[in-house]
Amino acid sequence: MKTRITELFGIQHPIIQGGMHYVGFAELAAAVSNAGGLGIITGLTQKTPELLANEIRRCREMTDKPFGVNLTFLPTVSSPDYPGYIKAIIDGGVKAVETAGNNPVKWLPVLKENGIKVIHKCTSVRHSLKAEAIGCDAVSVDGFECGGHPGEDDVPNFILLPRAAEELKIPFVASGGMADGRSLVAALALGAEGMNMGTRFIATKEAPVHENVKQAIVAASELDTRLVMRPLRNTERVLRNAAVDRLIEKEKTLGANIKFEDIIQEVAGVYPKIMTEGTMDAGAWSCGMVAGLIHDIPTVKELVDRIMAEADTIIRQRLARFNAG
Fold it and tell me: What residues are paired with 210 via a beta bridge?
């Protein structure tokens, strides 16, 4: 399947694996790239630029296909060593970067000079237009369904994607609620040039996370996610567990007076405990409503092949049938 996204990144299928904290390691990125999509290493999961350089080398040993690195620009006082991370990306010969968080404008010139294509994650049309204006090559449009940070506008993809299509000139992919061939065809119908999957890729054989995490996603329904940190205007969609229930109770009790320090136990530094050790109630972790559509743990190749076969069948048979007048 050829789209502007497959052409932009030199990939076979219009499927991107989004950056995910303590999930986007070389094993998963290489598996997605080998299956014909665009695998992404999560930059800030690697504590230093040197560790990221090493992770890029490891990925290179596992695939000769294009892969990218996610770099999230955090609004923090003590910033990570972004120049160091960018140098590791450039020196590693990576040609695709998924940016997220704060406006990446400061870093675009050096990425562009080194022939790197940039796709920025956006949760609104206005942010997408800003990404286009500053020179991003593509955007990942994140609907309200998505795991992680859906923004504060609460617009789901059935509205957000066609709105993005009305306004944008650069290509975009649909993110949030993407799981299968139906998702891909729907995204294309609504104006996207492909899709970005996060939660669905966690429930695969190659995802380097604890089996408990994969089983929790398979067991969850579309009703099992919760929105937390909304009073702090840092809304995150997470899978419900004991820690999340505690966090929501604190939000109710403290109301507008809540501070980040009040919930630090439930949200800070919990990913290694959950993703690596499988301690499922250790804290809040990002998960999309799409969990309701995830019923198995295939290999990445099985998943991608199934998605493309299903998409092809829908386009050629189901949709063609409606046009048979």
Answer: none
Query: For tokens 């929790």, what's the residue?
Result: 216
Cα–Cα distance between 230 and 166 in angstroms, integer?
A: 29
Q: Per-residue pLDDT tens for 159-182? A: 999 999 999 999 999 999 999 999
> Could you identify the residue written with the tokens 């022939």?
115
**Of residues 206, 203, 260, 199, the one with CA closest to residue 228:** 260
The secondary structure element, H or E, covering residue 68 is strand 67-73
pLDDT, tens digit (0-9, with 9 covering 90-100), for 90-142? 999 999 999 999 999 999 999 999 999 999 999 999 999 999 999 999 999 99
Which residue shows structure tokens 């099985």?
A: 302
In this prediction the pTM is 0.97
Query: What token pair was written down for 219?
Result: 């067991």
Amino acid code (one letter) for 120: H
178: left (phi over 0), alpha (psi -120 to 50) or beta: beta
Instruction: Give the tokens for residue 284.
Output: 């809040």
